[in-house]
Amino acid sequence: MSGSVAGPEIERLIQLLARLPGLGPRSARRAALHLIKKREALMAPLTTALQVAIEKIEVCHTCGNIDTQNPCTICTDPRRDPSIIVVVADVADLWALERAHATQGRYHVLGATLSPLDGIGPQDLTIDALVTRAREPQVSEIILALNATVDGQTTAHYITDMLQDADVKVTRLAHGVPVGGELDYLDEGTLSAAMRQRTLF
Ligand code: ZN
Fold this sequence. Notes:
With 201 residues, the protein is an alpha/beta fold. The protein has helices at 8-17, 25-37, 39-56, 73-76, 91-99, 127-134, 150-162, 188-196, and strands at residues 58-59, 66-67, 81-88, 105-109, 141-144, 169-172.
């Protein structure tokens, strides 16, 4: 990398922006320049929003979601079905399911998936809290909405074992043909999973 093109304050801004996911040094520089040009319209409100976020955002003690209230908006929403807990690895997955209006259940955020290679074991996830929640009398189904990766499926199997003596149905998301997907473009693993998990038409 060549030398600095701006004073240390601007370099610092670029360095911090470059730490955001999806932004390399080049896009960080572009973002910094954009913010500086839009100082009033963008940078000032962004600064305020970040300040409010630092002060107000908390992790929900019940489900692990992040929100400005604790318990979070979803946990306290009376329209949510208390019999269903949807288990996700990360808040990003929760947000994705909410965007899709995929469930009326409540959530449980594990914080990660089990990954022996990265040294992430059961004690690093909120599995104990999930087992406790699953034993609450109103809970009847645990939906494992985990990634269709080796780590995601290892985590699903581990949780299923842990929930064996809880009086709940444990389900997981189907694997198969994506909406709008063409068979010819699918990998063999997806195709054979879709064939195994075929449903009555
Ligand atoms: Zn919550």
